[in-house]
Amino acid sequence: MTDEQKPNQDAEQEHDMTLTTRQGHPVRDNQNVRTVGSRGPTTLENYQFLEKITHFDRERIPERVVHARGAGAHGVFTAYGTAGDEPVSKYTRAKLFQEEGKETPVFVRFSSVIHGGHSPETLRDPRGFATKFYTEDGNWDLVGNNLKVFFIRDPLKFPDMVHAFKPDPLTNVQSMERFFDFVSLSPEATHMVTFLFSPWGIPANYRQMQGSGVNTYKWVNTEGEGVLVKYHWEPLKQGIKNLKQKEANEIQSTNFNHATLDLYEAIERGDYPEWELCVQIMEDGEHPELDFDPLDDTKLWPPEQFPFLPVGKMTLNRNPEDYFTEVEQAAFGTGVLVDGLDFSDDKMLQGRTFSYSDTQRHRVGANYLQLPINAPKTHVATNQSGGQMQFKVDRAPGQNPHVNYEPSSMGGLKEAPKPGKDHEPEYHAKLVRAPIDRPNNFGQAGDTYRSFEDWERDELIDNLVGALSTCKSDIQERMIDYFTQADADYGRRVSEGLVSAKSEESADGQANPHKAVEQSQEKGREAG
Ligand code: HEM
């Protein structure tokens, strides 16, 4: 083939709409299987049919064990070069933040947590806000939620928490009794529950919500000095909007995909959502002067003491070309950091860091990092090879293909130079199983309750009374006790609400729709 011929042929191929098999064979009949006579039987050597149907049989991968329902978009992060009034380099040497105007491509996946892949997007649930930054130093994932705190502070409790919140293993229906059974024996969840049952538990859509890294990380500068850091995404022009339960019910009655559609359509019409990334910074250490531990993810860092410092802005401006390829196969994890960003000793963060890549090797496969959505957009050269679905070797140009080990004197890969002084925290402590000091389970829950506007508090009480009405009385009592410890008015209102809900129920003589499930749970308790 001459060079003059080639472009024409490429152009022809570009416009070739012929259907083929994955082996590249043109498909000449896509309507009829091959049969003996027009009425069958079918033959087994029908490769085209077998390829089509067996691929179809494998179209699904396991859905995420949590955060199964989601929507994603591509965009760009633009750094400010500063953290508030200071040059950002005072705190971190991470390259993506250093220069004003520096752009880093990003991919974001928003999600809801508890229910499956096609569940309604109107449910009361935290929302996931996971961002992959494709930086020049490799990828950084910031895997956060819309709410700034979490239910638990020890990763050992996570599988139990998720089991209690997910549908009952027998009925396959979510039960508020199981939810509050767990929560009423986990007092540290009171703060998160106060947010979740308020309108903040149903963001109007994905564009009009905040995001937060929730866990405490570290930033490290060129001197190797570390500070504690928390990350927050603040929506810019689109603002923040949450829904009352009634509004959510109305949307859900006609549309259970409203948040996915809202994001997709906004980007299609050029109305690109934007968030500012802010950090809160605290000197590294235990901070005995605070009434909470800075590594406790059930706590907010008071913004008056630890102000929000803007460090950059993110714009989402491109929809995925294919949902499965980009959104379903996207894999985010808290272990994915770049130089200048580090882990703190936050136990939850460390537990999470093991879990994400572990589940992704199972959910997507051992080579999930070779997929374009997950692969860094920079130099990748490893000596890892093999496993299902490997489609290339991570070889550096010029690398001796015989050398897949390090160290080697025969043209293999070499260690990188150190970018700055290592951050080397020292530890002198016993190895123990112990809760943190200063649990302070109720103080901030009370502050949050008092910070709400009247309508938000009214919604919170209504939603809690509705959910707790389906629970047995000792669960109700424990929850009322927690709410009272947070704020006397909070506890009193939930308690009074439950009393009047009970008297209304007996006055109506209405059949409780959950009765059969309750009876079955009662039997289960007796059996146990
Ligand atoms: C997803 C584990 C706490 C935010 C997941 C997944 C696992 C997991 C296994 C599925 C990942 C996948 O299939 O790709 C854990 C564990 C936790 C924990 C063990 C506690 C010990 C949290 C917290 C947050 C959070 C505190 C919020 C800051 C998310 C988000 C996703 C997710 C946003 C979805 C990521 C995506 O869009 O693909 N988590 N998680 N998780 N988790 Fe967690």
From TrEMBL:
Cofactors that this protein relies on: heme
CDD domains with a match to the protein in the record: catalase_clade_1
Active site (catalytic residues): H67, N145
A Pfam family it matches: Catalase
UniProt region (Disordered), positions on chain: 1-40, 405-424, 497-528
Amino acid composition bias (Polar residues), ranges on this chain: 18-40
Amino acid composition bias (Basic and acidic residues), ranges on this chain: 1-17, 415-424, 515-528
A GO term from the CC aspect: cytoplasm
EC number: 1.11.1.6
Enzymatic reactions: 2 H2O2 = O2 + 2 H2O
Enzymatic class: oxidoreductase
Its biological purpose: Decomposes hydrogen peroxide into water and oxygen; serves to protect cells from the toxic effects of hydrogen peroxide.
This protein's name: Catalase
